[in-house]
Amino acid sequence: DAKTTQPPSMDCAEGRAANLPCNHSTISGNEYVYWYRQIHSQGPQYIIHGLKNNETNEMASLIITEDRKSSTLILPHATLRDTAVYYCIACNAGNNRKLIWGLGTSLAVNP
Amino acid sequence: NAGVTQTPKFRILKIGQSMTLQCTQDMNHNYMYWYRQDPGMGLKLIYYSVGAGITDKGEVPNGYNVSRSTTEDFPLRLELAAPSQTSVYFCASMTGGNANTEAFFGQGTRLTVV
To answer: What is the per-residue pLDDT across B45-102, written as a single tens digit (0 to 9) for each?
Structure first.
C-alpha cells in the first residue's frame, strides 16, 4: 500500500472550513484513499473514501487531484467536536485490506 | 447492531501474567484485525484474519496469539505479559473482497503491564 504524508498539526476556527491535505504520490491505480479520525483516543471512525472522483457525504468532502498524487479532506463548517487526529490511508483490495497508519494530522478547532 | 465490541475496557496486568482480549462483531464481516496504539503514534497491525479458521501475522505479532473459530469472534491472547505491551488495543472488522468498504472499530482496551 502507498505511503501517505500529512502535516502533523493544523488549527481551524469554529464555523470555518477545515482543509486537511494528504500526499500519496506513490499511490497505485487500484488503491482507494480513505480518511478516518480518532477523537480522544477512542476507536477510529470512518469519514469518507474515494478512488478518482471527488466524493461528498454528510460528514465531509474529499477532493482528489487528477493525477491522484494528493487529496484534501474538507470539513465544511468545523465544530469543536471535530477536534481529532485525522488519518489519510491508501488501501487496495489486495494485501488483505490491511490498513497502514501514519501519524495523521492533529486538528484543533478553536472557538 | 452493536458493531464491534471489545472487552475489557481497562486492565492492569503484572509482568508474566497472561490474558485474553475479547472482540466480537455482529455485522457478519469476514475480515477482522487487531491493532495496538502507543501514545502519540498511529496504529500498528498485530494479527488479522480473513475468515473463520484463517489467521496471519501483521507488523508486530511477537508476544501475541489469536484464533478465529467463528465469524463473530477474534480473541487476542497475551502470554507472559511484558511492560512493552502496555498500549491501547483496537479490534476492527470489515467485509472482504473489494476495497470499496470501510473498517469498523471497537472502542479499545487500555492495558497496563506493571
So the answer is: 999 999 999 999 999 999 999 999 999 999 999 999 999 999 999 999 998 766 678 8
Interface test with A, best of B4, B43, B107 (most A CBs within 10 A): B43
Q: Is A86 on the interface with B (CB under 8 A)?
A: no
What is the distance in angstroms between the CA of the first residue and the CA of the last residue of chain A? 37
- Say whether pLDDT at A93 is over 80: no
Beta-carbon separation of A49 and B48 below 8 A? no
* Three-state secondary structure readout of chain B: CCCEEEECCEEEECCCCCEEEEEEECCCCCEEEEEEECCCCCEEEEEEEEECCEEEECCCCCCEEECCCCCCECCEEECCCCHHHCEEEEEEEECCCCCCCCCEECCCEEEEEC
**Average pLDDT value for residue range B19-37:** 96
